[in-house]
Amino acid sequence: MIRKLLVEPPMTGEEAVRWTTPEERAEAEAFGSERRRAEFLGWRALVRRELGTDVQIGYDAVGAPVLTGSDCCISVAHCAGRIAVCISPERCAVDIEPASRNFSRAESRYMTPSEQALSDDPLWPGIVWCAKEALYKYAGRRALDFQKDLRIGSADLAAGMLTGRIENGEPVELSVRREDGFILVCIL
User: Fold this and answer.
1) What is the pTM of this model?
2) pLDDT digits (tens, 9 = 90+) for 4-24
3) Residue 158, class by beta-carbon neighbours within 10 Å (0-12 exposed, 13-18 middle, 19+ buried)?
4) What is the residue-wise DSSP string for 94-150?
5) Tens digits of per-residue pLDDT, 140-185?
6) Which one, of 116, 99, 114, lies nearest residue 182 by Cα?
């Protein structure tokens, strides 16, 4: 199996029906928001479109999506207007946010002064947020502090690369993309 990163607008309900189960569609109907329904069905549809309609989707003990009965790993992220899915034979992670989102109110709760000093790019706070979300998903466990346990140590935005660390673990390479008004960070 190859590694894939899919980034797409949510499918219409009619498109998603082809790739989702009746149980998933019934579960989605319980959501109060049409956007939430589209995201819930959309990422499942993307996974099945790529891997086949017989793929079974479940959740692990942390609540992250998994493909049950498969050695394949997935990671999912969504925001208004985009769904991102990583598919890999190894652990992977992804996060996506609109570039227009204002991170200034929360910045001091997730970014250290040394991380702030890594770049003066106006999208840097959003890039760090996405990177830390990806690291959190990659770690696969709860109760990690975004400021103390998840760190960004270096950035080469021209090359689209960051180096992060989960607690005192080995460095983790993250890829950064900025396109169509979205920030995307993945570990793939």
Assistant:
1) 0.95
2) 999 999 988 889 999 999 999
3) exposed
4) EEEEETT---TTTHHHH--HHHHTT---TTHHHHHHHHHHHHHHHHT-S---TTTTE
5) 999 999 999 999 999 999 999 999 999 999 999 999 999 999 999 9
6) 99
